[in-house]
Amino acid sequence: MDARYKKVLEDLGTLLQFKNGWLFFSSEISQAEALALGNYLEKIRFFEEENAPLIQLDKKNGKILIRREGKPGKENDKEYLRGMLKFSTDLSKNVFKGATVEMHLCDGWDYFETLAIVK
Fold it and tell me: Which residue(s) pair with 68 in the sheet?
């Protein structure tokens, strides 16, 4: 594995694997919180597709941050962003007990840089 990829993956935190997806979580997140998200995503069949988006779960300034691979070009698609906002609201309600959830759409896992923030 290329050293750059390895470094990006190490920086994402602890890995949990669910079906076809990877969920990483930072030290700001408990394993129970990460498992709650992963189990919910499995329940809604998020990880069913063969190349399920990579997810990173973090917490900053009291907000839950969900960083996920976005589809190329979708960071400028208003309809797609509205769907991601609805998804964030759903996760806040059903997983994180009403906590504020901020969704970051990122490029591929080789860099995993934020392209858009959905709030």
Answer: 55, 105
